[in-house]
Amino acid sequence: MTEARGSDDRPGEPARCAPGTPCWVSLMVHGMAATQEFYAGLFGWEFRPGPPRLGPGVRAVLDGRDVAGIGQLPPDRHLPVAWTPYFASDDAHRTAEAARRCGGTIGVGPLDAGEAGRLAIGSDPAGAVFGIWQGARHRGTAVPGVPGTPVWNELLTYETATVAKFYETVFGHEEEPVACAGLDHVTLSVEGRAVAGIHGVGRAVRRDRGPHWLTYFEVADTDDALRRLTGLGGHVLAPAEDGDRGRVATVTDPEGARFRLLQRP
Q1: Domains and CATH numbers, the chain
Q2: Between the CA of residue 1 and those of 17, 44, 210, 225, what are the distances in Å?
Q3: What is the pLDDT of residues 118-151, one digit of tens each?
Q4: Is the peptide bond before 49 cis (omega within 30 degrees of 0)?
Q5: Residue 181 binned pLDDT confidence (cut-offs 50, 70, 90)
Q6: Which residue intervals define the domain VOC in the entry (predicted)?
Q7: 96 phi and psi angles, rounded to 5 deg
Q8: Is 138 exposed, middle or buried (CB count within 10 Å of its CB: 0-12, 13-18, 19+)?
């Protein structure tokens, strides 16, 4: 997760993310206890209560610092369980309005999360769900770049042209097409730093999921993490292989939330 320290940051506090930067990830599940047990075993996370205004939920922490959020789905809500990335904003209301004007949908908020900040959850014109986070006391993932933390987000969608323009307009991203024959792939950047990717896969988009974001979590050893994951009840969708970013595997947790494990070189 790319960060940029602002002028109002104070020593010892997490850096304030530049607007448009992925700064947080969250997961809504049916079985809170089982989910916590799974991610504690996989990433070494511990947990503490989240903001009461957001409903039943916890924050995952490493070394006492926030990493991700996990919330409880109502029993009658049968939604796909998925990790959702949040993009930093200086004004969640203004960003949500921009998303609506550009063909997106805002399904939640903007709403206050107490002293932590302000958030909204929406979907882009192709249907991929994302979050907007206007941080106050809580600025996002506080310990990036170590095993057990989110390090990259990639959108799998039908095609990149229209969707990339949406994120460029709403969040101020800069687009950089990946030069590779037959590959529809765009990198999104903030202040010259790559922060996320968009991969157009056409009809290969999973019908049960539709276009969706995939979060990459850093691990020290992908193959060792896969052994732990399967022992904890997770599933391997694509085995580990070496790529440009490192050794990566696509997996799911026991409730079906898809994510990727990444061992960086």
Answers
A1: 22-135 (3.10.180.10), 150-263 (3.10.180.10)
A2: 9, 19, 24, 20
A3: 999 999 999 999 999 998 766 677 777 899 999 9
A4: no
A5: low
A6: 21-135, 149-264
A7: -65, -40
A8: buried
